[in-house]
Every structure is written in structure tokens, then in C-alpha cells.
Amino acid sequence: MPRFRTSYLVAASLAFFLLIFLVVPVGKVIYVAFQDSSTGAFTLVNFVDFFKTSLFRESFFNSLYVAGMSVLGATIFAVPLAYFTTRFNFGGSILIQTLGIIPLIMPPFVGAVAMQLFFGTNGSVNLLLDQWFGINIPFMKGLNGVILVESIHYFPFILINLSAALNNIDRSMEEAAQNLGSSGMSLFRKIVFPLAMPGYLAGAALVFLKAFDDLGTPLLLNVNNMLAPQAYLRITSIGISDPMGYVISVILVVFSLFALWGSMLASKGKDYSGGGKGTSGLLKRDLHGWEKFGAYCLVIFLLLLVLSPHISLVLLSLGTIWSYSVLPDGYTFAHYAEVFGTTREYITNTLLYAGLAAGFDVVFSVAIAYIVLRTKVIGRQWLDYIATGALAIPGVVLGIGYLRTFNDFNVPIIDKPLASWWVIIVIALAIRRLPYALRACVAALHQVSISLEEASENLGAGKTTTVRKITVPLMAGGIVAGFVTSFATAAVELSATLMLVTSESDAPLAYGIYVFMQSASGRGPGAALGLIAVVVVAVGSYLAHHFIERNKRMQMSATGN
Amino acid sequence: MSLVSRVKAVRLRIEDLHISFGSTKVLEGINLEIEPGEFFAFLGPSGSGKSTLLRAIAGFGPDPQGKIRIDDEDIGGLPPWKRNVGMVFQNYALWPHLSVEKNVAFGLEEQKMAKAEIGERVKEALDLVGLYHLVNRHPSQLSGGQQQRIALARTIVTRPRLLLLDEPLSNLDANLRVQMRTDILKLQRALGMTTIFVTHDQEEANTISDRMAVLDKGIIQQVGSPLDLYDNPVNRFVAHFLGTTNMIEGEVVSSDGKTCFIGKEGIEIPLDNSLDGNHGVVVFRPQSIQINTKIVDDSAVNLDGVVDSLEFLGSVVRYSVRVGDSNILVDQDHQRGKKIFEEKEAVVLAIQAQQLFFIRE
Question: Which of A183, A269, A354, A544 could pair with A484 as two cysteines, CB 3.0-4.6 Å apart?
């Protein structure tokens, strides 16, 4: 039985890779957190020390506070936008749908410094407020800044999930309630809101997780009393033997897992979508006169707010000097010239790393998807679980794990520890983005009817030929979408990269932005680099969307729907 | 049963109703009167506007022109939640996040009824559909048939003035469908509620309704009892939609004081002389034709033909017989040992004059 052996062989190599580069490093981190640093025995003393130290206690509560408040902020931005687009026939809907996801194409740390120039104590907004009303609002002061930046960047997770949930509610759900005498807010509270709840919670959990794990934003805003920055600072300043970095890592992983588990629990058995029968989506109505005016005002205000990081980043990248003034003093292309002239390797490194990582990801994803959905390999589900589990591993934790695990492992020929070779950055990116590509490929393979493959086998093609000629081409849209998503998000990944970059010549874009943004004179070029990153991600996201849509259309025509 | 005594049957009158989706006209000039306590069916193919009409009565869909009256009250301008018109949705529309009990209690809670009374009424309604034991389940834990009954209970518990059923049986399998339609009819008779039932299945409409309206292309084609529509269709559409039928197109002409329908295939059929000079079709059902090898009855209309093909359908054998240029379907009751005509066999078809129905066009 050759194909039996082939699938086990492939599954085993995948499992081996995941074991070495995901399970072992993370396991190592957890192991060290529970290990007495002098004797090597099992101990809880590191955790006791952690909670005895006031800085760590403060960091812990700050991280929880920031994540919780970011969910609140993101909810405040997302709920009205989702409600307007799904409930009313409203010209602004398209505006919201397109502009509303723009924050996602820029990682929060990129815009963080620019936001300070906009909303900081001496930023544009406060200068104007002071001039007009004589007040100063501490938008960016301490934790507020992190909360504002995170909510603005991650609210699309709630917007997208909540809108999808609202759009999936079968029209008759609402009609049945009206038929029984219900209307207005009571109907919304009793029927619409509970039905959309799983979508909201899925989005909220992602916001919580992202805000809780984020390293770049607090570092750039100079807020160090949070968990992720503390872990990073302990490891980089004290060294990889300091147990506190590991303790923090364990806490980060536990909370990430908890958030993911919570969102899964919330949506379990609660797929309230109509299942294709009947019309989906809420009953829509037109807005009249002042309602329309009010709705547009609110939507434009929210959109300006959520686009403020992009606007301020553009200003920063083009401005000469911007300090204590509403707008920059003058405009120039010098920053772009500098970036392209002197630090081109940031860009080429990024293209190389993200390209390799995304390539790995799709090959792995196709293989895992096929093994999980089409073979009977024992334990195949675990490949999916473990690969997806990477979602719950913050970059800083993976970085620490790699440093600890691979520092003693010398790569032959180049004679250098694996932990400081640039290839480790590629592997970290690949592991971090694997879940994205995997979901795209699993979804694509789900859509390929098994009868299409059976037809091929019926006509005499073997398994391998069928996979090559039928399955993979039919999955092409999903594969490309997975590649592009992995590529675009890997291109701006910072937290793991920050731990693993050992020399500037090996550094990618995100690292470059981080380095530039730390000095006042580097902000201009940093912003220019940031915009280049945004463009890369934007083009990538557009392509991913394009290929997903094309694939959907192809599947629709194939099944005659 | 306390529910039974308290329902007062209403009369529904629809006057000159027009509905368009944008520039597409969906319903045109609908006039209809449904008697108190009647079980009425809207029958038509998909896209005929039957569901749109039902939904308009409940207040859903685009605003219609024209009047919808319950007894003497015009409900046309009322929002759905103020109509007190109960509707059972095609997909049942049970709220998945609420238990059976909460689903059924919903309408009563909206009426701000006292808790104790809600409990009583919910039990009563669930007993009526025989599912009180499922009161704590969630919709996803119910079978299709159970969901259907819960949806029915949820609607009748509020004692609506009208009961509207939108293709309620279309999502059930064949056996359950027959069972449910008997149960629904029993329930309707017990409650005495004026009821409208939308379906595309003529058998369903025939078995369950007192009267029905056949719709096509947004227009009511004919209204009447199932038997009346089957025997006296006013046009080709109704004749076809209510069952397999034969149609022969031709002219009615008089000569020598005798009036005769002359079909294109050279078929001659004597008709009542008041129909002279008309163009139209003669309609006759497959089961009203006798098939023989030679003429047996001179008083019948006899047509010569050749068996083209035959299908065995179980209780009948359906022959397709070539007569002139057209094929006529003939259903013969099947019994053991009865002669089966073979393909290419020459036959005589005999139709009693009474079975022929002329539709003027």
C-alpha cells in the first residue's frame, strides 16, 4: 500500500517540523518557568517571585487593563458601524466596508509614534483644543496611548465578525418576532443581539488577544510597565537565563489560550446562520432627512478617527519638522530618498523572509489540509490543532523559546548558532503565520467536492496524479489567498523578529521601522518605511481578497449554483 | 379546549392589491374574499407571487397599493407587529438561542401578559401540538417535524386573527408531509381560525383547502373549490397546473345545424351550439379516456391512434397515443391480468362528451 505509507511519511515530517520549531521551544519556555534556576528542580518559586515584585504585578494588571479597555474601545468604534451598514440602506455602507478594514493593514506599532504627534499632549488635536477651549485631553498619556492605538487598529476584527454575524441572521428570525408583536429596541435586544453575539465575541476575543500580546506598540510609546515589554526587556537586558521572562511568557500564553478558548466556547453550537434557506440579513430601511445627516456625521467622525494613524503617518513621512505645531512646517520627499538610498536591505530582506515564510506556509498548509480532510492518518487532527495553536503563542514567547532552544545548536558550514542565523527569522515567521495559510487552505479544500476527486480516480488517475491535476488546481484560489495573507502579515511582524535579529544587515522592515522610530531624527524615514510596509500589506490584502472571490465564483459555477 | 371557544373567525378582503419590487410588478389587481373560518390555499409555481401576497397580509415586503381588510378594519397601513396576524414561516424561524418554552412564550411576553397566564397558555398550545414534553429543548435538538409543530404552537398561542402558513410542509419528507397536513387541518377545524396556506403542490392544496386561488405571473387565475377548479379550469394554465391533462387546439364551427370543434389534428368533437365561432382548446384528463382495439361505444367521441410509448406507474398504465400530429395521454387502471397494449399497436380512444371541456381563448 504505497499511498498509505506516503501519507504517513508526509504527516510524520510535518509533525517533526512542528515539534522542533513550535512544541519544543514553547515547551522549553514553560519548563524553564517552572524550574529552579540553580538546582534545576521543579518549583513555583519563580511565579511567587513574579507576584511579589510590584513592577510585575503592576505590569500584569496594566496588560489586563489595556486589553480589556481596548476591547471596550474597539466595541465603541465597531458596533455603530456594523449596525449602520447592516440595518439601513445607507450610501456610507461601502465607505465603511472599505475604509473600515484599512486599520488592519497597518500593524499598530507603525502608527504609534505618528499618533503621538496627532493626539499627544503637544500634538495637533490638543494644540487645537487648547487654542479653542483651553483644554488638554491626555489621549496618549501612558496606558491611554496604548489603548487608543490598539482599539483603533483592532476594531475591524469586531466590525468584520459582527457584520458577518448580522448579515447571516435569517431574515425570517426578525420577521417572526415582528409577527408576534415585537419591534424596535425590544426586538433588537431579545432577538438580533443574541443571535449576533457569537460573532461579536469571536471578534472581541481577537482584540483582547492582540492587545494583550502586543510588544511593539508599548515599546514605541515608551510604556514599559506591561507584560510583553517586560519579558522583552528582561531577556535582552538581563539575559536568557533570567526566569522572569519565562514566567511572563507562560502568563501571556495562558491568557491567549484562554481568550481563544473563550471565543470558541461562545460560538460552539451557535452557528445561527440561515444555512442558505431564505434571505439573510436584517430588514433594511431607508434613512430620512436628519437621520441621514446624523448617521453620516457619526460615520465620518469614526472613520476619521480610525484613519488617523494613516493620516498622521503620511504627514510624518512627508513633513520636514513637526513639533509643537498642528501640521508639519514643510513637506519633502527626502525621507523616502533616504530610505531607498541607504537602507534598502530592510526592504529586500523583508521580501525575502516573508516570501520564503509564506511559501513554506502554503506547502505545509496544503499538506496538512489534505491529510486532515482526505486521509485516515491516525492523529491527523492533531496536526491541525498544533499548527493552529501557533495563534496563541505571542511572538515574544516564540522568540524567547528560539533563543533558549537553538542558541547551543551550531549550524554546520557557517558555524554559527541557529538562533542567530537569519533563517531562524524565516522559520519564526512561517510558524507565526501558518494558522492563516492553513485556514485558507482548509476552507479551499472543504469547497472541493470529494466527487471531483473520485471522478478522476474512477478514470484511472492515481492519488498523486489526482492531487496534482485536480485537487491543487481547484484549491488554487485558497492557496494564493493563504500565501498572500501570510506574506503580508509576515512582512510587518515585529515581536518575534525583535528578539531574533542579531545584526542590522539581517533585519527586515518592521525592525527598521522600530529602530528609526526610536530617535526623533529617525521618525521621518521611519514613517516612510512604515508607509512602504502599509503599501506592501495593502496590495497583499487586495490580492488575497481578489483570489478568494475568484475562487468562490469558480466553485459556484462548478456546482451550478 | 379553552383555545377553541375564544377564537372569533374573521373575514379577509383584499381589494385591488398591487405590489412591485422596484420596477418589477409582482402582484397585479388582486381581489379576493376569504370567508370566516375558511381554510384557503394560494397555489402557484415559484415566482407566481403567492408568498408575496401572503407576506403582504402579514405586513412584510414592499408597501402594497390597495386594501387589505380584516372584517371592516383596513390593516394595510399597520406595521407587522400591530396586525395580530399569525404567520408560520417556511423555515419555521424558531430562534435558536431560545428554548422551546421561550420561543412559544415570546408573543405573550410582548403582550405583557402575567407570568402565570403565560405558563398556562404555553402549556395549552404545546399540548395542542402534542409536544409539551419538549418544552426545555432548544430548536437545534428538534427534528424537522417537531420544529414545524413548535412554530405552529408559537403562532397560535397568541390567538391571532388569521393563521398564515407559508409552504409549511415543503421542508418535511414525504411521509411526514401527509401526516402534518392532516394534523394542521384538524387543528384548524378545532380552532376555527381563518387560515391561508401557501403551496406549490396541487395535491397538498386539493386535500387540505376548502377553496383555493391559483396564481401565475402575479395574477389570480381562478378561485374556487379544488374539485371545481379541476373540473372547470378557466384557462390552460389552471388546467395544466392542477394535473396532467390533454389539450387540443382548434375552432368551433357550425354546419347543418350541428356545432363541432375541429382540432388541428383533424379531431372532430360535437359541442353545444352556443360556442359557435370561437377559437380555443378542448381539455380532457388522461383518466377519462377508454382505450380499446376497436370502437365499442358509438355515442362517445372516438379517435383512431397508435400507441407511441407506455409507462407503468403502479396503479395506472400511462399510454402516449399518437393521434394525428399530437400525442394524447391515456391512463388505464391497472389490475392483474389486464391487457397491456404494445408499442405501435393501433387503438381507438373513446371519450364521453361530458368529459370534454372547451376553454375559449
Answer: A544
